[in-house]
Amino acid sequence: MEILYENLKAFTWQHCVMILIGCVLIYLAIKKEMEPTLLLPMGLGTILVNIPGSEALHGPIEELYYAGIANELFPLLLFIGIGAMIDFGPLLTNPKLMLFGAAAQFGIFFTLAMASVFFPEIKDAASISIIGAADGPTSIAVANTLKSSYIGPITVAAYSYMALVPIIQPPVIRLLTTKKERLIRMPYEKKSVSKATRIMFPIIITIVASAVIPQATALIGFLMFGNLIRECGVLDSLSETAQKVLANLITIFLGISVAFNMTASQFLKLDTLLIMGLGLIAFIVDTAGGVLFAKLLNLFSKKKVNPMIGAAGISAFPMSGRIVHKMALKEDPQNFLLMHSIGVNVSGQIASVIAGGIILGFFAS
Amino acid sequence: MNYLQYLLAAMATAPSKEVETSLEVGKDLVEELGEATETAAELGFEPSRFVDMLSYMGIGMFIIFVLIGVIILVTVLTNKIFSGNQG
Cα separation of B26 and A126, whole Å? Predict the structure, then answer.
């Protein structure tokens, strides 16, 4: 009979809290539909690894972790799928929009400086700052390469805040813009982009970014590989596989194997709260950076841009682009910013990967 | 580009990086002896480090803008060269 309750005696309040956190993640995924593809497997994985004596922790989850996260394989494979899903068309018709994507990465470097105040290990501060990339695979890849001790909280923060973009961004945008600025219209001139340009674009980005920042080669290369499969026109079945089967499969493995770092001993620390706070700061400063850059450009430009599109420069694609578009419609039902905001949003994906590479270039030994 | 590589190399050889490199080598040795640990250093509060990191902020944003600028230029050129070959 002892065998029935022997393991129950090993439960501590920390295990219970982590199991509750796992349940909350599952609730947010299902009921609130917040990034369900990641939060649900992470939630269940959190429950699995916080049962005392769990064979899942030192069994399949550990195997998956070392098979795909410790060697950065899963995030890179997921990038192939993400690259295959992205249409760079709106960006290619107006390449200047990429500047807003660049500006919106300011939050990463600001958070790097903030995090270094509290975290003495530079690898941890740098890994925390990359939450501002608003890109799960980049966050995992950078934190893992830098061998940060906080991969679990960083991943939870990155994906949670990505899902909370509709709540985080609008107040920041309204605070930094006037009514008059939010009403600026940006007519969209439809231009077609040649197939050659669509094919050359991922190749150009890979060469340019990797030549300067070799540490970004894997991140940018796999993303652009996925896009090249999509745009080449001769690999439709591979493109479809990458967008659906590959992306979904890797997402399942990634979500559950990240839970390896979600044990009570690793997660329930003051550090975790601090990381969540710094992650929020990163997102807010990212948004502010993009908006303020757009306002700065307006000082020197005859053709004004609606500064709200700067906020779409974070990598939360396509949510951020849609949020900006909806905010513009709310101010003026005739103001259609979607093509501009999506173009900026897509550029944010590129810029965030470059920023991740720069962080690795600075701090990876 | 040589200047950017110089900047990156300069950052890589900054004194704080050398200390971290030494720590990393030490840690590798400990792991080889089978006593690997992954414990994080304790939290601290050193506001002066914010100022120390401002250089990374400046250089990082500079590199991003330069790279994005180059990508924009090349994209515009590519658009112009291949504008006759639609679809």
Answer: 21
Q: Which of A108, A192, A209 sits opposite B67 (nearest CB)?
A: A209
- The CA distance from A89 to A94, in Å, is 9
Q: Which residues pair with B86 in a beta bridge?
A: A194
Residue indicated by tokens 């394989």? A73
Q: Give the count of domains, chain A.
A: 1
ipTM above 0.90, yes or no: no
Nearest CA in chain B to A147: B38
Q: Which residue type sits at A122?
A: I
Find the CB nearest B74 among A196, A208, A363. A208
- Note down the domain range covering A279: 2-79+87-363
Inter-chain residue contact B57 with A124, CB threshold 8 Å: no
Chain segment A101-148, per-residue pLDDT in tens: 999 999 999 999 999 999 999 999 999 999 998 888 899 889 988 988
Is there a contact between B67 and A212 if contact means CB atoms under 8 Å apart?
yes
Number of cross-chain residue pairs from A and B with Cβ atoms under 8 Å apart? 148
Which residues touch A318 (CB under 8 Å, ≥6 apart)? A342, A345
Per-residue pLDDT of chain B (87 residues; tens, 9 = 90+): 444 455 555 555 544 555 455 445 444 444 443 333 344 567 888 899 999 999 999 999 999 999 999 999 999 999 888 876 554
Question: B40 and A204: CB-CB below 8 Å?
Answer: no
How far off is chain B from A187, nearest CA to CA, in Å? 20
DSSP string, A169-217: HHHHHHHHS-HHHHT----------BHHHHHHHHHHHHHHHHHH-GGGH
| Residue A209 · residue A354 · CB < 8 Å | yes
Three-class DSSP category at A232: coil
From B42's Cα to the closest Cα of chain A, the distance in A is 8
Among chain A residues, the shortest Cα distance to B67 is held by: A209
Q: Which of A114, A205, A358 sits opposite B60 (nearest CB)?
A: A358
Chain B: give the shortest CA distance to residue A67, in Å.
19
A319-331 helix and A338-363 helix, angle to the nearest 10 degrees: 140
Which residues from B are below 8 Å from A205, CB to CB? 71
